[in-house]
Specification:
By secondary structure, the chain is α+β, with helices and mostly antiparallel strands. It contains six helices and eight strands, in the order E-H-E-E-E-E-E-H-E-E-H-H-H-H. The strands form two sheets. Strands 2, 3, 4, 5, 6 and 7 form a six-stranded mixed β-sheet that branches. The longest helix is centred in the C-terminal third of the chain and has 11 residues, at 118-128. The model has no long low-confidence stretch (mean pLDDT 79).
């Protein structure tokens, strides 16, 4: 069964000043189909109390495998990712901060005292996707037929003096 629950209960952090918590997640799925393969997504999360209406969230050691189709040979291949850089987000219920626009400050559900990290994990996974997907065979091949043909097209020169005489 796929585990699609990405909500973390933060009531203990909000009610106990200066507390922290570390949680390790494994085998999580995203609702959006991104071709993530077994062993799915795993990461560590560090939560820290900042105030009665703010929680700092730090995502660490994010691991996942994605199945891609090569843009050149159309073969399927898997690529493994390990993101060691920490992704830091602040969740708040402070009305003054909510009115301002921030890239790393988001609201949490005050009623349920939960945060949902699924949208951030989707962004992290999508940001790792390469623009041009190449399997290991195509990466090792210095110049494929497609690029040779494109180079020949761009190598064509035009005589502008002939165009002006017409």
């Amino acid at each position: 069964m796929k585990d699609l629950n990405w909500k973390i209960k933060i009531s203990d952090l909000l009610n106990n000043p200066w507390t922290t918590d570390k949680i390790k997640f494994e085998n999580k799925f995203l609702k959006e189909d991104l071709w993530i393969q077994n062993p799915w997504i795993s990461w560590e999360i560090f939560l820290e109390w900042l105030s009665h209406d703010e929680i700092l969230v730090e995502l660490k050691n994010i691991k996942f495998n994605i199945k891609y189709t090569c843009d050149i040979c159309w073969e399927n291949y898997n690529k493994e990712y390990l993101i060691k850089e920490n992704e830091t987000i602040t969740f708040t219920d402070n009305p003054e901060i909510k009115e301002e626009i921030h890239d790393d400050i988001f609201e949490f559900n005050k009623k349920n005292e939960t945060i949902n990290i699924e949208p951030f994990m989707e962004i992290i996974v999508k940001n790792e996707e390469p623009v041009i997907k190449k399997c290991s065979n195509c990466k090792n091949n210095k110049q494929t037929e497609v690029t040779k043909n494109q180079d020949e097209i761009w190598a064509y020169t035009m005589d502008f003096s002939k165009l002006l005489k017409s």
